[in-house]
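So, read this over?
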Amino acid sequence: MTQRWTDNQVSALAPDTSSLAAARKLAGKWSGTGCSETALWGLCKGSGKTPYQTIVDLTGPAFRCSCPSRKFPCKHALSLLMLWSTGTVTETADTADFAAEWMGRRAEKAAAPPKKLRSDGPATTQQRQERVEAGLAELRTWLADQVRTGLAQTDRSHAAFEAVAARLVDAQAPGAAAAMRRLPDAVVRRPDWPEVVLGRFSWLHLLITAHTKLDALPAPLAAAVRSRIGYPTSADSVQAEPTVGDRWLTVGMRTGEEERLHTRLTWLYGMRTGRWALLVDHSFGSPVFIANTPPIGLTAEYDLHFYPVAAPLRAVVGPDRDDTAPTAAELPATAGSGSIATALTDFAAAVAADPWLESWPVLLRGVTPTQQGEDWLLAEPDGSALPLETPEQPWRLLALSGGWPVTVFGTWTGRRLEVISVVVGGEFHDAGPPADSAGPAVTATPEAASIALLGTARGAADPPGLPEPVAATVTALSGRDAAGRLLETTALDMAWTRGGYLPRRIEVPGEPAAEDPRPVLPRPAADRLALLIESRPDFLPEWFAAAAPHDYRAPDRLTGQLLEFAAGNSELREAALALAGARGRWLAGRIPRWHDLVRRDTAQPEPENETWHLGRPPERLRWLTDLRRRDPAAARDALAEAWSRESGAPKAELLGVLADGSSPEDEDLLERALDDRRGDVRRTAAELLARLPGSAFAERMTGRATAWLKCAEAGSGEGSELIVGIPESLDKASIRDGFTDSTTEFGYRWNGRPDLPATRLRKLVAGLPLSYWTEPLGPPVRACATRVDDRFRQPLFDGWMDAALAQRDTDWGHALFTAGLPSNLAILRRRELFALIPSGDQLRHLLGLGSAWLSELESLLPAMAHPWPPELARHLLHLFEERARTAAARRGAPGTYPSAHRSLLHTATLHLPPECAGAVTALAGRCEADDWAAALGTLAHDLHQRSVMLEELK
């Protein structure tokens, strides 16, 4: 049976993100599904009575669906492929009739002999050539006019270039038209646009000149000229070329899109012949290409037919091929050019045969990526280097290299190298796209561009400093029109410069990354991690927790992605950096925006407090946090020693580090902090002292409580009553302990005015040891029933809640949660109180909530330990089913749609046990409400993905 695709492979087929999201909602609507070795089929319930018939030919892939969608593939085909990828579609002996009929028609069509293409007669060919000649003559005149009047004076708008391109299309010269259409982008995006424009104009001028002498050119060069202009090349003429049979290794792939036309470029290397080949495939609407070549790094035996041009590179696959599965192979020692010098020689030979050649494949061994100023280069050990087209993600190449020499495949344009793939340890890795993929291969010199900007009608036609052979040729052109002479001179100069490029000489850095002895993350888990970082970061906490016991290190290709993630996620930063390991520390030290992520290897001795004394604020904060985790006393002593020298906003952050493992030994430093001039420092100190019930701060708060609060019997057996008497003016000691005259801190109001006594009451209660209340009010349950003036009820309970959370008091947390809280603002913190309750009590409370309490569940469930217990999972699914029945019975009733419980469904996605996926799928199939079926289908899909993700780590 055909190997099932991964979820990532299926997602790559989606024409847009909305189709992918819609496909995931259809998981519960399928029936009659099945698969064979080559086909996949099923019936999907739609809005009508008749289900949609969906078929996928896995060998293409190709798609057929009876739905009216114009997207390709449609959401039904994507959903069916998702089911198949998860293993829920089983192989059957009999193919469904509708699928067998369609697959049969495809087989008949494939077996039928190809239709004979109509060939143009001599008259038609002559007519086309005349039209091309007329169009190119107009273009030649237009080019000369632009250079004569000056590029600075001409219309460089998109509309101007498009008008010229449209005329060339009318003249049946689409290749020249495409060259013109690439120019507006360069004018807008590049500061050196005059050099780009003049270079392209000269390139076209040379092409036009060659076309005027087409009959006198050698056949291969004439074919190259026709190809550049856009003459059609029939498939028959290419297939008629001699076959080149070999075991072809796929060394690189690139996919691009322009106006919904997706183009895939595939570079091949012949293992026996040593030839390069380029396959070009097109797909309109979506990036679905024929699987006629193996993936990067694999080889297969087949024949190629090369296009008959001066420098043959583009080819097509012949009809006969070996059906043996592709296999992995290492590059032979003699593959490609190997060295920079040989690569430049090969390129010079190719561009001499075809002056309009944009680029040529090169393979460089033993080169090290490095940065010199703003330029990225590949350098050999002796310092010879080639500049790179600026990578979109420069850290990708650095991560794969780690400062060690690697093998690189790319295309050399005569000015810069665009890296396509990197070979490390015999394995191919995609290098990612360049940042400026529109960078032209042909550009004029600044001197020539300056003349063209001004215009030859106002200045000289010959740029200074031309190489001697070019200058000698220019002398022979002295009688030509000045504009034409500048175009021809520039074309000659570009050809000479590109073909005779000399490598740069640099100093190669010699500090590679250290080795990491830990086991490498398994390949499926590594692929999953990359996918989660990109599209499902909410799954990452569970993934990192499951990976931690294995002590894996990330493969080098993921190091940069992990650092980018760590830079933007403080909660999982340590886990990501631990996975990145030594390679991550090395890489972070070379990318400026990641310098703050640099971690010193704890196995290596660290200079005495170097980071603490000399580091930047984020580095010092991390240093102190790490030290506090390892040695709380040492961290406290370091902060105490430097306290008098600290200043600014980071001071409160540094003091906040003491919250981790706070103890009575921290009291002296916190008391010092109460005298600080900064309010945020004083507030932090007061909050931390409130965690120490035996501190002098707690004693001072107790003394104030005795003076400000009175407890009395409420009478009639109704329990206790609390009488509040907050003074209007405070002494200096109270202000030092955090009491202020601010009325905005908590926003309490009474009789329409800010209520300062309420603010002070909350401060007082939050700073008291909870044991204080036992004598006057009794245990927590009884204390929560104490009567108090309505004005002070909310701040009293808010203060109790602050104290319970700070002192982690389970009894008070349970009592406050059970009693309920008197304000909507406090309800937002009920989840924190719920987290204090023992797990058994938590579970009993949640199991007692029915479907009318889904909002309560939604609020409290995130506080439950991960993953949820099975009985809670069953209870929640039962509630979902009840709500789905209500939605089906009362269609349109408010609150019955899944969108009303979006947060609860998302929480279930992250915390339900993954083994519930089957039960959720069955539940989705039973739902009569389509929206609930779709929501539960998405939930089942996500649970299955979590299950697979955890299995991949084992």
